[in-house]
């Protein structure tokens, strides 16, 4: 089983997307006038302060919630259709593994739910375990794995149906810095190998810059896109990149966009 062939080279297209949550205290405008295009195979991070609507935007793309206004398409289809066609995989901060299932059975779950035969499933699970470096751990249970390994299982599971789009909401947020950097490197490799586009939510500036082709900066109340920064860092994402001037330059650019410090500094002079 494979996600259907894309009908457009845009993985995500959001036009004038808004989201209002009605609450007892009145309406909360979580997102307003969001314009976003993610090309096939592109890695885009959404960054912004807590509460700016990053998760909300990702949930709209994933069809876990509906936009109040505007239009949203995934590979040219309505989000609902894309969900049914398994055009995207999802991974969140909590790995969300089933504790009574082995690593292999967790990775294969989406395939099982879609009635993929055992032989095909086993072959695909083996392939995915290798992709995320867990071949020797397929018979373990989640509580026998470190947090980083659990997150790798979640990533493998999200890739099971060969989606051309991966939606990730702070997937490394609960991990220590070393593991986090390691998995960032792994993720760029996996994204390149699978050719999947990625929309990655984070509030870490270095993480966003290291991973992305473009960093989308959001501001709160109501959440909107205020800046888009092309990293232009090329194909190779390795440890040397983290110490390169080009990388620091982009980290600074994103930080300034996020804090609006450029304007403040100009005024100080
Ligand atoms: N189901 C909901 N009901 C009411 N308000 C919500 C709901 N979900 C999110 N919000 C509000 O929408 C805003 C954006 O939330 P969220 O997308 O979770 O932000 P982020 O992921 O950037 O931290 C916040 O003000 C949040 O309180
Ligand atoms: Mg969030």
Automatic annotation (TrEMBL):
<dbReference type="Pfam" id="PF00005">
    <property type="entry name" value="ABC_tran"/>
</dbReference>
<keyword id="KW-0813">Transport</keyword>
<feature type="domain" description="ABC transporter">
    <location>
        <begin position="12"/>
        <end position="245"/>
    </location>
</feature>
<dbReference type="InterPro" id="IPR017871">
    <property type="entry name" value="ABC_transporter-like_CS"/>
</dbReference>
<dbReference type="GO" id="GO:0005524">
    <property type="term" value="F:ATP binding"/>
</dbReference>
<dbReference type="InterPro" id="IPR003593">
    <property type="entry name" value="AAA+_ATPase"/>
</dbReference>
<keyword id="KW-0067">ATP-binding</keyword>
<protein>
    <submittedName>
        <fullName>ABC transporter ATP-binding protein</fullName>
    </submittedName>
</protein>
<dbReference type="InterPro" id="IPR003439">
    <property type="entry name" value="ABC_transporter-like_ATP-bd"/>
</dbReference>
<dbReference type="InterPro" id="IPR050166">
    <property type="entry name" value="ABC_transporter_ATP-bind"/>
</dbReference>
<dbReference type="InterPro" id="IPR027417">
    <property type="entry name" value="P-loop_NTPase"/>
</dbReference>
<keyword id="KW-0547">Nucleotide-binding</keyword>
């Amino acid at each position: 089983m494979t996600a259907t062939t894309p009908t457009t080279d845009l993985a995500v297209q959001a036009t004038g997307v808004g989201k209002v949550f009605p609450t007892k205290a009145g309406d909360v405008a979580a997102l307003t006038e969001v314009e976003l295009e993610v090309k096939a195979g592109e890695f885009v991070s959404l960054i912004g302060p807590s509460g700016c609507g990053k998760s909300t935007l990702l949930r709209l793309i994933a069809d876990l919630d509906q936009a109040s206004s505007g239009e949203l398409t995934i590979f040219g289809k309505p989000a609902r259709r894309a969900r049914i066609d398994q055009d995207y995989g999802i991974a969140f901060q909590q790995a969300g593994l089933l504790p009574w299932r082995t690593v292999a059975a967790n990775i294969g779950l989406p395939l099982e739910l879609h009635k993929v035969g055992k032989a095909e499933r086993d072959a695909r699970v083996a392939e995915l375990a290798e992709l995320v470096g867990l071949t020797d751990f397929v018979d373990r249970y989640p509580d026998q794995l470190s947090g980083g390994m659990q997150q790798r299982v979640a990533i493998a599971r999200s890739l099971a149906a060969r989606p051309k789009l991966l939606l990730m909401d702070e997937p490394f947020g609960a991990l220590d810095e070393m593991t986090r950097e390691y998995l960032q490197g792994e993720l760029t490799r996996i994204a390149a190998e699978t050719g999947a586009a990625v929309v990655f939510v984070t509030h870490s500036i270095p993480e966003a810059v290291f991973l992305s082709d473009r960093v989308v900066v959001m501001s709160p109340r109501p959440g909107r896109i205020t800046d888009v920064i092309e990293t232009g860092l090329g194909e190779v994402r390795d440890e040397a990149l983290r110490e390169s001037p080009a990388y620091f330059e982009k980290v600074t650019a994103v930080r300034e966009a996020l804090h609006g410090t450029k304007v403040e500094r100009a005024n100080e002079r």
